[in-house]
Amino acid sequence: MTTHPKLEPLPAWEKTFCIEVGAMPWERFVESKKNLYEHDKVFKYDDSVGLTAFHEAKQRFWKIYHGFPCENKLPSNAADLYIDDVDWNSEIDRELFSEIKSLTDDEDGEKDNAKEMNWFSSLLEEIQAIGWDEFEEAAPH
């Protein structure tokens, strides 16, 4: 007999993190996650540095939200961390630009890049997320 893990309600602070730090409404976040499965490249992309930064930001937010001291602060130069890597006098390759522009203008080409859904994916649409709106963790005072 297969047992499924019990679904845990989403803490209110995670929604608040998404809205305040991510500057994204919760509903848009949920909808974006649903659309990830349409594009293969999203899952192949290795963004381990971004994932680490995300987890650190989430940890900082959780500590501040719950009133704990936060030792893991952003460096004061975080906004300018890679500014020296920008070539402000770069030349645009007109041929490459035209090629890229023609690809983005081609709607059929974009549809070819979308992952074809198989019979299993239609079952995923029938699964309803539960518990996300049922529990609101009280904010600390």
TrEMBL record:
This is Uncharacterized protein. It comes from Gossypium laxum.
